[in-house]
């Protein structure tokens, strides 16, 4: 049975680690004789079984002699630090080790052979380091390994055929070459990006290509070896498959062309019937009761009459509408929206004010039992119709599962309407800050981190459209949610629309605005990253950047979090609701805070790209304790 002497040895080992790589970053009360209450340390039966110190700025080389004393470790997580040098050889003494997370450091040298004696390893993540050398066939000893992440290192040579129960595997961004071995061909190409590897799932290896499928006539070839003959056979099979593929491709292609032509013909017909002449609308305008501008009528009550909506939508002010003499315009749909409706349907719909935003007022319109849309009535758009149309067409062309799709738009000189899918769960802002009292369903880490990931993916997609494409108004009320809590970014492209000619300031949300942003109409991608970082901190702290005490004190959310993390125990920053749910997620929450702080760095160059943010959150969710089954 383990004695208190063992615990003393463990304690001494932890203290050695602290003095070697920790410096100030360890917040351990070393007066305590037992290390079991130290942050990141977990004990069982008087022995340290887990050490988790992710993202706490550990630096330097881990000396030998530490892990030789922590032999009962089952989980070791030192990810996202700045550790250097080669891995300590005595890591091989931790024969119980199941989960080893060392990604995101600066470890170098070869992956030590001793690691392959850790036959209980289930998850191994050495990604984002500077490991060199080949991927040893010693990995085949790790017969329980389910996760092997080696991406973003300097590994070279070919990959051995790892016949392991792997479910997660990645070797991207290494100097690997040769063909992908049979047992790893089941993984998608994402697992092998930026390498010189070839073969399934990547493109066929050159040596396979050069083996002729038919013997060349009169060629001076040496007799084929057994291997070559095998290759040849394989090649022959492939050619057969390829031919079948081509034939099927041709048939499908032809069918598609016919289909597209048919759809186009029908669409033309439909569009003709869908185009609503403004005279119809003007006719409706005359039906509006009362002298009040219809927009005002609409916004005074929550529910308002259909005709009021019509007027609000079409003219804003019935008096000015006529004078301006609007040109005949129609509701223009994007993409291949199957359920289309026309402007009349929209005007007839029962509507409800959702709220007033920077760009105008948003309404919920219920067209029928299944069709519910959000209509945004833009204000202050003074740009010429042609320019507006060009810009909105670009917005409508954006297509990503984490963006709120813009379905249609209407424009006339006086009125611009945008029609979006209605997101029934409302905004992240409402979810986080609304109904904090009894009856609220607490938001757990999984939901919060999923929302963070979805929003990051949506924003990353926007940024990938071009270096000058940004959102310009990222905040929690612009992150909308589906029933299953999938996040969708809304309002993209609007700051440019309004910004091009408006003299008003479209961004009220100063709490989200990056310090370098002087003109809220011109927010760079790095400006978006800052705003996204504030949303991340908002997600974890549960504090709204706009109306908290911090603001009264003149401190923004990012600065507040930074000061608390520095001066006090970091748990102070977490939303109490999160802490009450599960403390085992704490280290991931701490990493998320760290990421939020990186995104909100004062200097734009220090902020990560959104693609990197996405990757980090994916890793975080993938290798967090909630994904780690100790019984593996
Ligand atoms: N597609 C939608 N589905 C459901 N609710 C929506 C939709 N679009 C907007 N809303 C909600 O309507 C309200 C007003 O939205 P709007 O975008 O006009 O303003 P905002 O987000 O508060 O500010 P800003 O205009 O600066 O983005 C917000 O509460 C928003 O969450």
TrEMBL record:
It is found in: Membrane. Residues 210-223 have a biased composition (Polar residues). Residues 348-620 form the Protein kinase domain. GO terms for cellular component: membrane. ATP binds at residue 376. The chain crosses the membrane at residues 242-264. InterPro entries: At_inactive_RLKs, Kinase-like_dom_sf, Leu-rich_rpt, LRR_dom_sf, LRR_N_plant-typ, Prot_kinase_dom, Protein_kinase_ATP_BS, Ser-Thr/Tyr_kinase_cat_dom. This is Protein kinase domain-containing protein.
């Amino acid at each position: 049975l383990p004695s208190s002497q063992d615990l003393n040895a463990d304690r001494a080992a932890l203290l050695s680690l602290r003095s070697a790589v920790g410096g100030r970053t360890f917040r351990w009360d070393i007066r305590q004789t037992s290390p079991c209450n130290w942050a990141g340390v977990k004990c069982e039966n008087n022995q340290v079984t887990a050490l988790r110190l992710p993202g706490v700025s550990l630096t330097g080389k881990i000396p030998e002699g530490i892990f030789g004393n922590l032999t009962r470790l089952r989980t070791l997580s030192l990810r996202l630090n700045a550790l250097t040098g080669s891995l300590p050889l005595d890591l091989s003494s931790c024969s119980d080790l199941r989960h080893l997370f060392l990604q995101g450091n600066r470890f170098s040298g070869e992956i030590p052979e001793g690691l392959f004696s850790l036959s209980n390893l289930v998850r191994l993540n050495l990604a984002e380091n500077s490991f060199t050398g080949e991927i040893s066939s010693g990995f085949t000893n790790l017969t329980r390994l389910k996760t092997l992440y080696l991406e973003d290192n300097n590994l070279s040579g070919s990959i051995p055929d790892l016949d392991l129960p792997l479910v997660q595997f990645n070797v991207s961004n290494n100097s690997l070459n040769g063909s992908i071995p049979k047992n790893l061909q089941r993984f998608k190409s994402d697992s092998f990006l930026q390498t010189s590897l070839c073969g399934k799932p990547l493109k066929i290896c050159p040596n396979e290509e050069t083996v002729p499928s038919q013997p060349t006539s009169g060629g001076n070839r040496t007799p084929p070896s057994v291997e070559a003959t095998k290759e040849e056979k394989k090649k022959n099979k492939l050619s057969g498959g390829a031919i079948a593929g081509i034939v099927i491709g041709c048939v499908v292609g032809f069918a598609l062309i016919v289909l597209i032509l048919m759809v186009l013909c029908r669409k033309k017909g439909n569009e003709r019937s869908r185009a609503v002449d403004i005279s119809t609308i003007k006719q409706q305008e005359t039906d509006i009761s009362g002298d009040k501008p219809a927009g005002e009528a609409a916004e005074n009550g929550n529910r308002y009459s259909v005709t009021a909506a019509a007027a609000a939508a079409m003219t804003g002010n019935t008096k000015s509408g006529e004078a301006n003499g609007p040109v005949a315009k129609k509701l223009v749909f994007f993409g291949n929206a199957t359920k289309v409706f026309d402007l009349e349907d929209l005007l007839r719909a029962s509507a409800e004010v959702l709220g007033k935003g920077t760009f105008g007022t948003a309404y919920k319109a219920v067209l029928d039992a299944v069709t519910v849309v959000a209509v945004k009535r833009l204000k202050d758009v003074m740009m010429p119709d042609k320019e507006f149309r060009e810009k909105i067409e670009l917005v409508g062309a954006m297509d990503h599962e984490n963006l709120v799709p813009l379905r249609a738009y209407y424009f006339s000189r006086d009125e611009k309407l945008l029609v979006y899918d209605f997101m029934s769960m409302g905004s992240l802002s409402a979810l986080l800050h609304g109904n904090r009292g009894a009856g609220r369903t607490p938001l757990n880490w999984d939901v919060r981190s999923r929302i963070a990931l979805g929003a990051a993916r949506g924003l990353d997609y926007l940024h990938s459209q071009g270096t000058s494409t940004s959102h310009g108004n990222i905040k929690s009320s612009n992150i909308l949610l589906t029933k299953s809590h999938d996040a969708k970014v809304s309002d993209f492209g609007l700051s440019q629309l309004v910004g091009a000619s408006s003299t008003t300031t479209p961004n009220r949300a100063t709490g989200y605005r990056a310090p370098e942003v002087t003109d809220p109409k011109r927010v760079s991608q790095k400006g978006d990253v800052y705003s996204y970082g504030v949303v991340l901190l908002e997600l974890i702290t549960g504090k709204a950047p706009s109306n908290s005490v911090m603001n009264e004190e003149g401190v923004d959310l990012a600065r507040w979090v930074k000061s608390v993390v520095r001066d006090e125990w970091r748990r102070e920053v977490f939303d109490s609701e999160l802490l009450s749910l599960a403390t085992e997620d704490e280290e991931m929450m701490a990493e998320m805070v760290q990421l939020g702080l990186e995104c909100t760095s004062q200097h734009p160059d220090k902020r990560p790209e959104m693609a990197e943010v996405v990757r980090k959150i994916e890793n975080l969710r993938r290798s967090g304790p909630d994904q780690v089954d100790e019984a593996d």
